[in-house]
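Ticket #4471: structure output looks truncated?

Reporter: J.K.
Steps to reproduce: submitted the chain below (348 residues) through the standard prediction queue, then opened the result file.
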Amino acid sequence: MRRISRITVAGAATASLALALSACGGTSTDSSSDSKGDKGLAIAYDVGGKGDQSFNDAAYAGLEEAKKEFGYETADLEPTEGETDTDKQQRLESLAKQGYDPVIGIGYAYAPAVKEAAAKFPDTTFGIVDDSTVEAKNVADLVFSEEEASYLAGVAAAKSTKTDVVGFVGGVDIPLIHKFQAGFAQGVKDTDSKVKVISQYLTQTAEEGGFSSPDKGKTAAEGQIEKKADVVYAAAGLSGQGVIEAAAANKIWAIGVDSDQYRQEALAKYKDSILTSAMKDVAKAVYNLAKSVEDGKPETGIVRGDLKTGEVGLSNSNPKFADDTELQDAIKTAKEKIISGEIKVKSS
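Returned output as attached by the reporter:
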């Protein structure tokens, strides 16, 4: 059942939503609402937007699952180039004002916007992915132990390299991406101390395109390949597509991130070069928050996904990866030790 505090939405609101949102990012709304005109989950994308084959697309998958199960109207909004925190806040407030609930900002950059919007709309549940700093009674901080999945990616890289050199490409030099790098490097070293890890960040800020520039990712990967890296792991959003392209062109392994990139249609021609992907189940986190609101018991506070909950891990879609018994045994052992606490994975 829906929460009693849900805002009732009149039919005319649909038109006003389109007008309100035209000033704060593109929108893709679904018109198949139920007979009461009830509106449900809405998401606002991070840099790169829908179609990044990674982080944002995973969030969209969660939205689609909620829409299918609950039969209500949803909305998903694109970011705009050079937008401010105020732009993000207006986008979230527009959604809340029109009756969408929950409203989720996809990415840490939404933290200031979520904080302000949640204060103005206390009867709406807000969520933010990849940030744990917003403390409010109506906010769920959807975070993950990315370093744990990255550790397993490091094990896979160390077991798969023939040159004893592997690479890490981070989109933006920020603490969130440091978690990916730290876990990966630790996994490599714990598996084979002889293997060298080359690391590079594409930009210092997201505004410079670190998460949205495949050309930057491709150039970075090519530089690492020139230094003999034969496995490259990217945590760089849309920029990671360039890393995968470079890996395929040079017949080395790439390790994807966030989504199972082996199965992404846009990357199909490169899939034989994608060893595995270090996944975090953004789709499940988004869906679960929507379900909690639907059930009348909204999630709030820090909601963490890790190896123990099954919300981070490695994909097994590539048969060459899945059928490698020695590699799978090493990953299984590492996973068990992380869950038991025997291995403490670094996050920086």
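Triage note (M.O.): checked the attachment and the full token line is present. Residues 1-37 have pLDDT under 50 and may be disordered.
Status: closed, working as intended.
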